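During the reporting period the student researcher (J.K.) took over the structure-prediction task from the postdoctoral fellow and processed the backlog of single-chain submissions. One of the processed entries is reproduced below for the supervisory committee.
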Amino acid sequence: MTVVDAEPPHRLSFRWVYEDAVATPANSLLVTFELVPSGVGTLLRFTETGFREKGWEIATLEAKYADHSRGWDTFLGNIVDYATRLASTP
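J.K. obtained the following structure tokens:
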């Protein structure tokens, strides 16, 4: 994993790669978390890009994208639960 951008407490972007290699735009996916004020709370904006740039065949690209979507649904839900617990701690 390679951190690309960090603006605490607003944004964190990193590149990660499956292989045991240095993450670059050519071999990695870019993940970005942004915290955006929204009313009395905060919106977590998440993106993961770079699937098409990997050069995968369409079937592989679609399978990887679906797998990542399922995984991030779980992990992002955990972040929401964690943040909710933190916010309710005196």
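The committee noted the following: Residues 58-88 form the longest helix (31 residues).
J.K. will present the remaining backlog at the next meeting.
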